[in-house]
């Protein structure tokens, strides 16, 4: 048993029982070890959850970084979509991620910010856009994963919420606001409007 094995099994347990039911006792039983054995790799459950959150982000954290020829607006949208898809891959993925610190991803965040600034986005606006879009994405996924399904007691004139369509509409509004703060193409150091990625933790 090593640290990676513990995290992998913990994520599998998360998918099976949900975040509220994940415990070191259940994880130890799953691994066929005594509970104190887990403390060799993780001193507390909080440490374990942090490692799980980092591992769960792997599909997004390994996505290609933007290059100088990319349209920053399309990249902004796709980066946030990638973040959303990754959160949705795991049961309670948004709850697991919320509040985590991107200690292992700071270089990628800096490179994303540099791309936005080079594309003409004011640095402060780029930072705030990344934060706003990231928190918006986590909030959307929190609601989506908490949705128990169609509510039959809703009035007939209340439309059924399409989570993906609602996410895209809100994301477009965030992007539109950022465009207004960005230098026109040719006047900045890059292609023109700016955007931020999914979150300060992306």
UniProtKB/TrEMBL annotation:
Residues 23-42 bind DNA. It comes from the Bacteria. Keywords: DNA-binding, Repressor, Transcription, Transcription regulation. This is TetR family transcriptional regulator. InterPro entries: DNA-bd_HTH_TetR-type_CS (IPR023772), Homeodomain-like_sf (IPR009057), HTH-type_TetR-like_transc_reg (IPR050109), HTH_TetR (IPR001647), Repressor_TetR_C (IPR004111), Tet_transcr_reg_TetR (IPR003012), Tet_transcr_reg_TetR-rel_C_sf (IPR036271). GO terms for molecular function: DNA-binding transcription factor activity; transcription cis-regulatory region binding. The keyword Transcription applies.
